[in-house]
Amino acid sequence: MFGFRRFPVTWQSRLVKMRELYRRYFRENNREARGLRLLRGWLSPCQRAQFDANGHFDVVGCVSGRKYRIHYGAAMNVHELDGAGHLKMGWCFVPDGSLVAGDVMLAQKIALETSESSALSVAKRFVPNDRSGPAY
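^ thats the sequence. predicted structure below, dont judge the formating
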């Protein structure tokens, strides 16, 4: 009544490859992946290397010249560093809207590098967890 046909080997392998292509496309084109690609495009080569190695990158405030470290995340992820590289103070400020971590981190980077005083005026301060050693 029902006859099943087997595809030739070439068709089976093409179907497997096509399925993997679709899976990879959707894995690499979700909101989080697009946000991280956008962020990486705005990072300097030094910042990109730091982010790839450690999951954070440093920026310098445009007004004060202070160094800030932006960690991967969407809240409570900005830390001010002292001269020795220790965590000094935490700053929490995020843009409005439902954004993924990469988009939030890019907004924080741009805010600190172009309008540091405005960003910090709306930020909530917090004490970082670890103040004992240098922040790597």
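The mean pLDDT is 88.
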